[in-house]
Structures are given as C-alpha cells and as structure tokens.
Amino acid sequence: MDKNENILSIKNLTINFGGLKALDDVFLDIAPNQVVALIGPNGAGKTTLFNAISGLVKPDSGDISFDGKSIKWPKPSQLAKYGIARTLQGVGLYSGLTVLENVMMGADKHRNSYFIKDMLGLSSSNESSLKDRAMDALAWAGAAHLSDLSPSELTYPDSKRVAMARALVMQPKLLLLDEPAAGLGQDEIDTLAKLIKDLKRKCAILIVEHHVDFVSHISDEVYVLNFGKVIASGSFETVKRDPAVVAAYLGTDSSNHGGQL
Amino acid sequence: MDIFLSAIFAGTSRGAIYALAALGLVLVWRGAGVVNFAQMGQAMFSTYIASTLIAQNYSYWVAFVVALVSGGLLGALVDLLVMRPLNRKRSSSALDSPAMRSTIPVIASLGILGVLQAAAGMIWAAEERGFPTPVNSLGLVINGKIMPFTAFDLFVIGIVFVTLVATTYFFKGTGMGLAMRASALNPEVARLSGIRIGFVRTLSWVISGVASSLAGLLVTPSANLSPYTLDLILIIGFTAAVVGGLDSLLGSVIGGFALGLLVSFVNVYDAPEDIFLAILIVLLTVLIIRPQGILGSKEVRRV
Amino acid sequence: MSKASSYGRKNLVISILFTALVFFLSIKLDPYNQGQLSVALMFFIGILSIVLLTGASGQISLGQGALMAVGGFAAALGILNLGLSIWFAIALAVFAALLAGLLLGIAAARLSGPYLAGTTLVIALAIPSLATRFESVFGGDVGLTIDFGNPPAWLTSLMGEVGYEQWQLLATLPFATLALFFTSNILNSRTGRSWRALRDNEVAASLAGMKISETKIFVFVISSGFAGLAGVLYGLRGIVGPSVYPISLSLLLLTGAVLGGIRSILGALIGALLVVFLPDLIEWASGSFSPSEQIANYLPAMISSILLILTVVLNPGGIAHGLHHKKSHH
Amino acid sequence: MLEIKDLVTEYGSVKALNGISLVAHEGKITTVIGANGAGKSTLLRTISALEHPRSGSITWKNKSIVGLSPEKIVRLGIAHVPEGHAVISQLSVEENIEMGALFRMRSNKADVRLAIQEIYQLFPRLEERKKQLAGSLSGGERQMLAISRALVSRPSLLLLDEPSLGLAPLVVEQIIQTVNDLCRNTGLTVLLVEQNANTALGVADHGILLSLGTVAADLPAAQMKADVALRAAYLGY
Amino acid sequence: MALVAGVAVSTLAITALPATAASDPGVSATEIVLGMQLPQSGAASPGYNKVDDAMRGYFDYVNSKGGIYGRKIRLEVKDDQYKAGLTVSSASSLINKDKVFAFIGSVGTQTHISVIGDINRRGIPDLFVNSGYSGFYTNPKLYPNSFAALGTYVVESKIVGKYLKDTYPTKKIGILYQTDDFGRNALAGFTTAGLTFEAKKTAVNFIAGTQGSLGLASQLTALKANGVEIVIIAAVASATAIAVSTAAQLGYKPDKWVVTSVGSDATTFQTILGSKGVTPAVSAGLLSGIISASHAPSPGEATDEYVVAFKKINDDFNKGPDKRWDNNVLQGMNIAYMATSALFGVGKNLTRKGLVSYIENNGSKISTAALSPLAYSRTTHEAFTSFWIGAYDGATVLKPIDGTRVLYTTDSGTGPVTVSNYVRPALPADAIAKGA
Known about the structure:
The structure holds five protein chains of five kinds.
Chain B: H1 2-32, H2 39-55, H3 60-90, H4 98-124, E1 139-142, E2 145-150, H5 151-173, H6 175-185, H7 187-192, H8 197-219, H9 231-244, H10 249-269, H11 275-289
Antiparallel strand pairs in B: 1-2
Chain D: E1 2-11, E2 14-24, E3 29-33, H1 40-47, E4 55-60, E5 63-64, H2 70-75, E6 78-81, H3 93-99, H4 102-105, H5 109-122, H6 124-128, H7 139-151, E7 157-161, H8 169-186, E8 189-194, H9 197-203, E9 206-211, E10 214-220, H10 221-225, H11 228-235
Parallel strand pairs in D: 3-8, 3-9, 6-7, 7-8
Antiparallel strand pairs in D: 1-2, 1-4, 4-5, 9-10
Helix pairs in contact in D: 3-7
Chain E: H1 6-14, E1 31-38, H2 51-64, E2 72-79, H3 84-97, E3 102-104, H4 109-121, E4 126-129, E5 146-148, H5 153-167, E6 173-178, H6 181-192, E7 203-206, H7 211-214, H8 217-225, E8 230-234, H9 237-249, E9 256-259, H10 266-275, H11 280-287, E10 291-294, H12 305-317, H13 327-346, H14 352-361, E11 386-392, E12 398-400, E13 407-409, E14 418-420
Parallel strand pairs in E: 1-2, 1-3, 3-4, 4-5, 6-7, 6-8, 8-9, 9-10
Antiparallel strand pairs in E: 10-11, 11-12, 11-13, 13-14
Helix pairs in contact in E: 1-14, 2-12, 2-13, 3-4, 5-6, 9-10, 10-11, 12-13, 13-14
C-alpha cells in the first residue's frame, strides 16, 4: 500500500512512562474509508496510542503523518483542524450542556472572532446552521429525540450515540472511537456495527475495542498490541490465529516469552 | 548590619507564626483534600474562648489547653456538619464538574469563616482585646545589644518545631498517621485495607484545628484580638503553604519562615505598602515556575 | 427549531421587559429603595461577571472586587484628570478592567480550585494596596471622589423632578440592561456553550478544537470587563477608594452568586437582590423581637454565611436552580 | 463459602452485573474469566462493598455482607486486591504492607509482626526493598506488594483482580503460583478474576465465565479450559 | 423665605414662634431625628462603637429634662462597618427612611467622604463629624453643611510639633505613622511645624490594621538603630499599645514618647495591655510620661466639672453594652452636648438652613466641654484649633506639663502657632447648654 494513500501513518512511535515502555516502536497505517481496529489485552498500550494520536500524550520518538503530510505531533486543539475526531472512554459528554449543545460543540469550529457577534446576539444564522448540522448528526445516530435532555438523563447506550454524533458532526476524515461497544447489550452492539459500516463511506475509522465479535464484523484490518508492541496486524481472520495473539489473550501454559519484571 | 540582623530576627519571629498557620492548612489539605479558608476563623474563635477564661482569672495554661481542645472540636464540627455532607452531596450535585468539585469546599469554608466571625462579633466584639504571652517577652541580649527577638519568639519557634516534629512523627511513625496519609493518597485502597477513612478525615480536621488554634494563641499577643485580625495571617499562611508545597509539612514551615523574612525585608528595605504586592509576586512566581512548591511532590499537586 | 435560533431576539425582548420593569420601579419606589435597587443592579453586573467566570467556565475568583476597583479608579482618574464625562469614564473603566483581566488571566489560567481561590484572594488584597502605595495618583485611603452628578436637563424636562437616588438608578439601568443582554447572548450562543464545555470536560473541549489556556484567559478578560463596569458604577455613588472595594465585597458578590445560582442569569439577579436587601429584610423581620445592637449588627453576616453553607451543601445550584427545577438550564 | 445470588449492580443506567449467581468454596481457587467489560471487576467491587448492588445477595460463611462498609468487610476476613497493582506509590513498601494490618495492629501486634515476616519470606524482594517508595518498584513487585497488603490482614477470602495485568508472562506465572501455594498450604479461599484465561484455569479448581454481566459458563476449571466456547468469548471463534 | 442672615435667625429664636412652623424633614412638634453613621461591627468598630451609646445617653438625659423646646431628640444609628460602599446605603436609609433632620457625629474619614458630597448637596446639616481630616472643613464652600467634632490632624500635629521643636531643639525626633489619611495628615502637620524626618531613618510607617499580622518590630528597630530619642506615634490607640509594648520588648527606651490624641486613649491602652497580662500598675507605668495633646479635659481629670457631670449622666443614662468611661464616651457626650447647645441656640423655629447658619455664625457661642473654643465660622468649619499639651501621670491622667495648662492655637494651613488665653465657660447647672 502506497503510504501517500494513507490517511494516517505512524512510524517508530515510542513512549516511555518513567522507566516503563508504554509504546515501543509502534507502527500503524490507515487508508481512507477503512475501519482499523486496535485490540490487545488490558494494559497493552491501546489507549496510550490513542492519546498519542490525539496529542494528549507526547511521544518520545516517532513520526506521524496525516493525509500524506508529516506533521509534528499534534496538540489536542489542532486535531479538529486536521480532520480527526475522537470519542472518549466513559463517553466524556459535557455534563452541563444539553445533548443538542454537546453535539453543537462538535459542529463548531471555535474561533473567538465570533465573540462580538455572539455577544450582540447576531449569530442566529450561524447558530441555526450549527443546530441543523447537530440535529442531522443526532438523527443519524438515532438520538434526535434526546436533543433537549441533559447527559445525566441518558441511558448509557444513548450517551454513546450522542458521543458518536458529536464526533461525526465534525465531518472528520478520521474518526477515533474508544471502546464504543463497552457496556452495550447485544442489540445495541448490532446497531452500532451498522452505524459504523454506514460511517465508513464518509471517513476512516480507528477503533479500540475489546469486544472481538464486534471487531470481527466491522474491521478491515486489525492491529494487536501487547506490552506496547504491535504483535500482529492484518485481517481479523489471520490475526486471530497468530500464536502470539492467542498467547496474549488466553495466556500461555508454557511460554518462551522473555520475562520483564 | 544592625538593621539587617534585626530584619532577620523580626522576620524569623513572624515567620514562625506564618509557619504554624501554613502547617494547619497543610494538615487538612493532606488529610481531607480541602484548603480550609476558615482556619484562622477557627483559631480566632478558640483564642477568644481562651481570652474569656483568662479574663475570668483562670491561669494561662488552663485557657491554653481549653483553647486547643475547642480548636479540635471546632475542626471536628466543621467536618461533621459541613464537609461530610458536602462530600456525600458532591458526587450527585448539580454543579458536578472537576473545576467545581475542588471549588465548592473553598466556598463552604468561606461560609464557615463568615459564621465564625459573625458569632465572635455577636459574643465578644464590643471591645478590642490583647492576649498574654506565657513567657517573658523581653528582647534577648546578644553582645550587649537587645535584639528584636524575645524569649516568647523562641517559645513560638520551639512550638513550631515541636509541632513539625510531632506531626511528622505522627504521619511517619504511627499507625494512625499512616492511615491518614493512605486515606488522603488513595481512599479506595485505604478502605480496602480496613481504614475507616471517615473517622480518619475527621481526625485530620481535629488535628488541623488544634494546630490552628495554637497559631491563634501564639499570634494574638502581637496582634489585638478581634474577629478579623487573623484574616491576613490566613492569606500569608496560604502563600507560605503554597510556596513550601501544599502537601509538605516541612515545606510549609520553610515557606512560613521565608514569608516572614520576605515581609520583614520589604518592611525594612522597601516600604510596608509593598508587602502585599511582594507576597502576590512571590506566590505567582512559585505557582508558575514550580507549581508543586519547594518540597511538594509533583504527583499530588492538583493545579 | 426557529425559536431558539433567534436567541438574540428573545434576549432583546427580555432585556426590554427588564428595563421597563426597573423603570416602573424607579418611579414607584421610595428614594431609599431606589438607591438600594441601583446597588442591586450594580451587584447584578458584578455577579454576572462571576456567572461568566465561575458558573460558565469553572474558574473561581475571590478577587472580583479588585477588578471592580480597577474600573473605579480608571474612571475616577479619567474624570478628575482628563475631565471625561461619566459616560466616557465608564467606557474607560471597562477598558482598564479588560486589560487588568488580561494580566490576571494570564497568571490565573494555569491555576484551578483552591490555588486559584487563594491567589485571587491575594490579588484582592494587593491591588487596593496600590492605592496607598501611589497616593498622589490614587488618593490613598481617602480615595477619589466622583459621583453621578445631577440628572441631565433633558431627563428632568421629560420626567419632572428626578431625585438623586432615582437618577442613580436610571443611570445604572442601561448598563445593567446591557450586561443582562450581553451575558444572556454570550451564554446562549456558541461562546457560552464552549465555555461551559471547557468547564465540564477540558479534554473533550480541546479535542473539539478549543485552545484551553487562551479561552480561559479570554473568559477572565470578559468577566473582568463586567466587574470593572460594576466597579465604576459602585464608585460613582460617591467615592473610589480602598474602603469601597474591600475583600469582603468580593466575598459578598460570591455569596450572592452562590445563593442565587452560580450558573444562572436569573440567579445573579436574585442573588444581587438578596445580598442588598437582606439587611433590610432582617431588620424588618427582627423588629418584633428586637435583638441587642451587637447581635443585630452581625445578624446579616451570620445569616448570609449560614445561607451560603446551606446552599452549597443542600442545593449547590442555588435558588434559580430550584426555580428551574427539572428544566434544563442554559 | 462465598455465595452470591442474583446479583445486579448498575452504573447509572448500565447494568454491569445482570443477575450473577456463583459459589466460591472454601480452600479452593475459583476463577472468574471473561472479556473486558464482562463485569468481572464490578463483581469483586460489589463483594467488597465499593459498589452497592441494586439487588441480590452476597453471603460469606452464611452471613449476609450486603450493606456493610468496605472497612467492615475487611474485618470479616475478606481482602480485595483491586485491579492495576493497587499500591500507594508515595508510601514505602513497608508502609504499604503495614497499612493492611492497621485495623488489627492494636489488638494483635505480635501476629501482625509475624504476618509481615511471613510475607517477607514469601516475597524476599519486598524485604530487600522495604524502605523504598512503592512507586519505584517494577510492575511485578507492585503486584506482589498489593497482594501482600491484602495478605497481612490474614484474610480467609482473597479477592484478586487481574494480577496479570500488564505483566510479563513469566511474572504472571510466578504470582499465580504463589497464590496457588497459599491456597493449598493455608486453606485460603481465592476468587481470582483474570483475563488471562489459560493461566488462571491452570491453577483454579473452578471456572466461571462472565459475558456482558451474566454467567455464561460455570464449570470445573479443567473442563472449561478445554471448552471451545471460551475461545469464542475472547477471540470470536 | 430664605433666612440667610444669622442675626435674623437668632432674633427669630427669641421671638416665640410656634414650633410647628418648621417644615424640614426630621423635625416635628415633638421630635428631632438625628442620624449617625459609624462602624458598629467589623474590624474598625472597637472603641468607636461606644460613641453612639454615649451620645444617646446624653440625649436621653436631655429628653428626660423636657427635650429641646419640647422636642425629644431621637438618634438613629447605622452601622457601616467602615466600608464606604455601605456608608452610601446607610446614609440613604437615614435620609429617606428615617428622614433625619441632620447627621451628627459620623465616624471615619474614608467612609464619610463617600457621602459628604451628597449630604451637602441635599442641604442636610452634617454636624460634628468624628474625623480630623482637614479636607472636610477648611473650605466651607465645598461642604457648606459639614462641621468637625475634632481638631484637625494638621492643627494638632503643628502644635505638638512646635512644642517639641522648642522644647527639645537638639533631640533626634522620629515618627511612626500609619499609612492612611490620619497618619499622613499628621506627618504633614509635623513637617509644617519644622520637624524633619528622613524616610527609613526617622520616619517609619506601617499599614493601618496590620500591625498584628506584620509586626512593628522592624520599624521600631530602625528608629532605635538610628538613635531616635523622641518617637511620635500617629496611630490608633490599639496600635499605640502594640508599639509601646513592642519597644519595651526591644529594650528601646526613647527619652519621650509622643502620641497623637487619636491614639492616646488611656483606657484602650490599659485594656489591651491588661488582656495581655500586663497589670494596670505596669501599664500605667508604661503610659506615664507619654506626651499627648488634647482639646478637651482628660477623661481621668476627676475635678473637671464637665467630666464629673458627663460621667454621672453616662452612669445614669447610657444603655450601651460597654459604657466604661473613656475618651470615646467623653467625646460622644461632648458631641451631644454641643448639638444640644446649637439646637437650643437656633430656637424653636428649627430649620436645616437655620441650624447651619447658626453654627457658622455663632461658633464661639456654642457650648462645649473642650478647653478650646469652637472655631466654626464662615471661613472654616474646623471645630478646635487649640490644643493643650500634657503628659500622662502615674495614674493614667493626662496632665498639663509643668502643672499649668497652656492652650496653643493655629490653623490647618501654614499659619503660626500662638498661645491662646481662652477660658472655658462654666457648666450650666443641669449640664444642658440652653444657648447664649
């Protein structure tokens, strides 16, 4: 795969926390309109990788390029500019905003130059376009009827929908989903899978997920992390039979892995 | 040289007071995660109690002990009546956001300060009072010169160090101290270890209450007792605690003495009007350059 | 959906109704209550600055009084040294407070919670002390005398005789209305939304493209502008000086904000009315059992402190929250 | 015997546990396995009262422990080692261990001393490092410390949450073996939550597979290890 | 019907017009309502909170004797906590709710300045303000209705300054002053009198109210190190107590302490030191020899007829929580006494304009317990331009130095200090001055 085609490309990413290598020479490529899943046991470094991509953690070394352009590691506030949207583990909705406002936050481009207009009450047209886009996104996520509620009044699956809508409304080129299936029932997971397949037509998706069944249904490519390293990558079918992956998940009765204490 | 020396001495004796105030703040911050803006209000209140007893011809030491006990009781009351219900409420409150979670106890403590000052005003404020010292307060003589430093100042510094050593020993050397540190650092692991964190928290309010009433008893001989005299000590004590590192006992004592010297040197070499500005500049500088303070640990700071 | 998109129009209507109501009261009330109401409007503006800063963006300040002082002194200097009319002086005050807010905001943006509270408290102490430090400019403890002056001729020709308190109220009213209009627009627009988002979840807000520090500083600046406006109006009652803007003023405004409801404009109004009229209310209520002078003098402080604690513990959303109840608020 | 019946625990509106029933026999290792999000940790947290169940019962030695506080439950001999090497990194190794015995320090100081000595025999590395801050330990040592903190209370039931988390296989092996030895030698009852299923089932007497807050399988460990359903739960085949 | 001329007013006072003729607010056939603002609570209240009770005590006494031409005096008091923002509100309350006829005895420069403009604009008499700030009184065109109850800080310090310069020409004199209007006004007065102070060597300052938190040791050490032999303290009484006791701790014994009248109340001094555990005998010893100035008799002068009479009235009529006899009580009594004198002087037809005009034109006729004449005139509204200088004796009474009381007079400007030969008129038998 030509790397210029990739929407996101990461090379040699290493992050140390104290003496601990949280990520070790990690690579990752995502092509447009592809769903890539990141799996691995707890503590393998999946969330750290997510955080690095979203600028919440600063890598010690490595390269990241987006849309074929190499950028220095992004700051969180630049993500939107690069067209990357992210959902947070534990949903991360703004508790003091209504559902609609939460999604409108995603739709907004955040420039203070609107302040004077806002203060004078002259931003109605902007507001209504933001609102329309937010309502569209909510409708897409099947949450339009929730728009006036506060996040604390939502069920967990519903708040996940809202979080998805908030990310989607940014019209990202790349969507980072952090454990979207966690805490959902089977019906809801099926709905989610449909949503993601639908979404794939609009953008590339990188997903951290534990629910393997779900991953197997939606992902084009899977990266398996363990101890901060990519131990396998490829289609789910190939990856799941990789002995290293089996060992990482189910443990080893007789392991010849090097011990690291 | 004389001036310089006396600035050092004057600064040290003031610094001891600020150190005690800072210690009180650190104790409750470490034990309960609250910066208690009502602290010097509690100190004022218990000092008034002592003053009333002394006026009724009880001995200084009886009043002293009663003040410490009532300081501890006040601390317990603050925790039981305000902070505990607040903690219970906070998780489900309408204002639940990380920013507000650390802010609401501050507002509550300001309310407590208001109640204490108003109550003291209702009970005692008709006249201004002084407060005695338990030991001689004449300047010490060094090389035939009388220094701006009295036996009472030595007594105060002694008490600061005894308090520092005692609280440090308490934290490092006793089971209850360990329980207190554990419940402040990681309440969940503490509870799973069988530590009754509610009790431990109240106890830290009690200890902080005792330490602040000690500060009140020792500062009022040089201040006049009124419901408001100690407000400034709180502000300087807060700065001292932040300079030293809000979670370090030794740091807060160092911060207290540093602030004492700062105040004294600004007073002597510049002008008293600049003291507050100097305090502000020091506070901001520390917060920007070394937010965890001189001795504070980085992990615990919650900036 | 067209209703909410015209928030500006809705706020305009509310502001006009507010103006009409206060104007009506300005005619109906006795002079004392006219004066009290005008103080309440000034505090309303001051509390709005807390609603913006603490309610919307989650930053606490115990030093709003210092920013009020900046506004007051700027205006007084403008009036006394440059001969500005009070209207230009008010503009100057807001500008000076915005500037001071920028400086403070840069320092404060890195801080939160108790650190921010303590630091702003030191600021509240340090800034008024500048007045004594540079006495020749700021007038020392005595301060600088300014006032609203006499009602303009056009007003008296329009309304007949206008009392001093009434004029004070009428002169304050347009600014309170503007503050109300601006604040409700800010809070109901994307600006307010993004401030609240920042308060609720910094990480999510930054992922949405917000620059956290810049925004925090910006909120500080805007909030300071309101505080400065409140400060100059408060000073125009007769004097600008350290004893006009003591630390207790900052705490009083915070109390009002919390009692009324720190996230609500209605709450700001309720809180302002409460802290201004509480002493009158207590005096009226305690008339029957006439407490001793010493107790009566400390009663307002006692009651407002107790109310503050009760609010924080039992109903942190304040009175306005109780009124809105289940309705999701803005 | 620990007996749990129809346990339901919710986080907000999410049912993390949706009617769990199980039994952990005395002197045996019972392992609870399952993918992330299956409710394993919530189960342990509900037993030790860090979470309050919506409904259902938990009995230990035939007494209900629902509604007690975590600190009471420790006193009943139930020690919980939560997920993620739960030690307090700003405290020394020794202090972390002592912390677990504080509640019985006054009543039985001699036995606490003895218990600490036994722990040092069990994990000599901890004795070597007893003055160091727990934060300076390696992951494996921290896990040992976390277990020690629980053991020093002389529990009769040990709730162990993912001791393998983030540890190299060799270390996991060692820790699991230690737990196994403890159980076999002292009659300690162990409820072991693991994602690392093969390792856990290797030592356990009984296995319980959780899926989405319900019990998907409840089998003797050896039988479960051979079960294909298990693989499906983890890897989808 | 503008009654401008003072003479006309006095004439009217004699012609017995019915009392109902008056139409100004706050005065009826049966009552005169006066308003007062002071800190009754808060940091600045101790001491001052006794003044209003003393005034009310005297007015109650007057009322018990039939009031002023049948009108009882009612004193409405508002607590402003020494916060100017509250002063404005409480003034409005007094004006609009209590409908006071005049303000009287308001305490505090910083607070009164916030309302003085408004009170004057409304034409309300602003009697006997308890502030020595000369800016209020020396230009009657600015504040035509405001009159002082004290000598200005400038007058007092000029008089004391000249005395020190004359008496101790070779001594090194230093000053400890609080950094507010009072301290700096005093400093200015002493400088005008020809005393020279070098900053940091012989002039040290501290921030008012913070002495307890910040200490005075470094200031006093500076004075000591620079060999200052005479120390002037321009501070409130509680600060004086701290300064003198701190100096004692430092072993600093200047030849003379000189304390301005505001800071030299013996009762406050002894109360504060007393609650510090200093016995009355010792604190009296500390006080002994301290030089101060006063326009009035010392409250401890047991033979002064005014002191005796006021003390008796205080015992019988003061209902305040703390009515211990001291400077504050004496001051309150005297203000009420002066007000009674002026109100009687105006006559039955009591109007605001009439009252102001009467005081302005009959300053010397208004009766006062002070040993200085009242200086009210059309050119100045200062109260006392004369002070006598004394030293505390061993019994905490301020006594004339060398036994003879010499009264010095000057102005708040740069005028010279001269000796006055004023003799205070005798006290009326019922201790009520019913006018000339």
